[in-house]
Design goal:
3 domains, Zinc Finger, Delta Prime, domain 3, Helicase, Ruva Protein, domain 3, Rossmann fold, alpha/beta, 312 residues
């Protein structure tokens, strides 16, 4: 049996993988040590060899492959032999793909004919709110609407962080009444990266007043100006990398973007479309020069931020 878990939301994808593994353990009354071939060098022959290595004591077998379809050769070989791979009902073969840049709609449709596909995209709006409520409920906690809204705005669609923050706040309340906004403010740091993204989006839209207002709010809350500058550098570096890879093969993108979280890649790809490559190179050069001026003591960090936003 074949199973494919994919999508940009790696948190829910990982939870689904654990759910499948737990169900396999329970059904077969075993404590499972997963065989994992998940690497870029895997070939269809590697997979066949792994499937042949069975034990006389094993009635069923599970094999998990991670990001295997990032290898174009493996993907091509797998498509040719997908029916033979799906034929053995005693073997559960699970493909866990972080992101889905290499998985076209046609590929997903083909896979679905032979097995199960679980695709997890980032949650938004009411879906994200309902997920957070269920997560709180599973911990015996609940939150007032304004507290829940602040939790979500502080983390965005990054469920890895949202889950961690929910656990932190729920532990602090220890089963008492509803979580309140003041407790979220006390325990949860605002998502500076998300705000910097809003700042850069405002710059791309030509709305420098909004961009400066966002920077001023951070400074007023006591956020270090050098930290804000480092976030701007980090974000524009990501935009430049993503922009330079436009039109490149998936293999090239996978190799260069692998250090980035899929959520960062998605947001960067969307925002990079707002700039030309030359604009991004020019902006990055200005940021580099401003960073040098700060380190050389020629300008104060706060003023550098203002001038930088005004200039780009």
């Amino acid at each position: 049996m074949l199973v494919l878990i994919c999508g940009k939301d790696t948190y829910r994808g990982w939870q689904k993988l654990k759910e499948i593994v737990r169900a396999f353990e329970k059904e077969n009354k075993i404590s499972l040590s997963l065989d994992s071939l998940g690497n870029e060098a895997v070939t269809s022959e590697d997979l066949k060899n792994e499937l042949r290595h069975g034990s006389m004591f094993e009635k069923e077998k599970i094999v998990v492959l991670r990001n295997a379809f990032g290898n174009a050769n493996f993907k091509e070989e797998f498509i040719k032999e997908i029916e033979s791979f799906s034929g053995d009902k005693d073997i559960l073969m699970v493909f866990y793909e972080e992101g889905d840049a290499s998985l076209s709609a046609d590929f997903l449709k083909l896979f679905q004919k032979q097995g199960d596909v679980y695709k997890f995209d980032f949650l938004k709006g009411n879906d994200l709110k309902e997920w957070a409520k269920k997560e709180l409920s599973s911990l015996g906690a609940s939150a007032k609407p304004e507290a829940l809204a602040l939790l979500i705005s502080s983390t965005g669609s990054d469920l890895w962080r949202l889950s961690a923050e929910i656990k932190k706040v729920a532990a602090y309340k220890a089963g008492k009444k509803n979580i309140e906004k003041k407790e979220v403010e006390l325990l949860v740091s605002p998502n500076s990266e998300a705000v910097i993204f809003k700042t850069i989006d405002a710059i791309a839209s030509g709305n420098k007043k909004t961009a400066l207002d966002l920077i001023y709010k951070h400074l007023a809350k006591g956020d270090p100006p050098l930290y804000l500058l480092s976030m701007i550098i980090f974000q524009f570096r990501n935009l430049l990398v993503v922009k330079e890879l436009e039109g490149r093969s998936f293999e090239a993108k996978a190799k260069l973007l692998r250090p980035m979280h899929p959520f960062v890649v998605q947001k960067s790809s969307w925002l990079a479309k707002r700039f030309s490559l030359e604009q991004l190179k020019d902006i990055y050069l200005k940021i580099f020069k401003m960073d040098l001026a700060i380190k050389g003591g020629k300008i104060k960090p706060e003023m550098a931020l203002e001038l930088l936003v005004a200039d780009i």
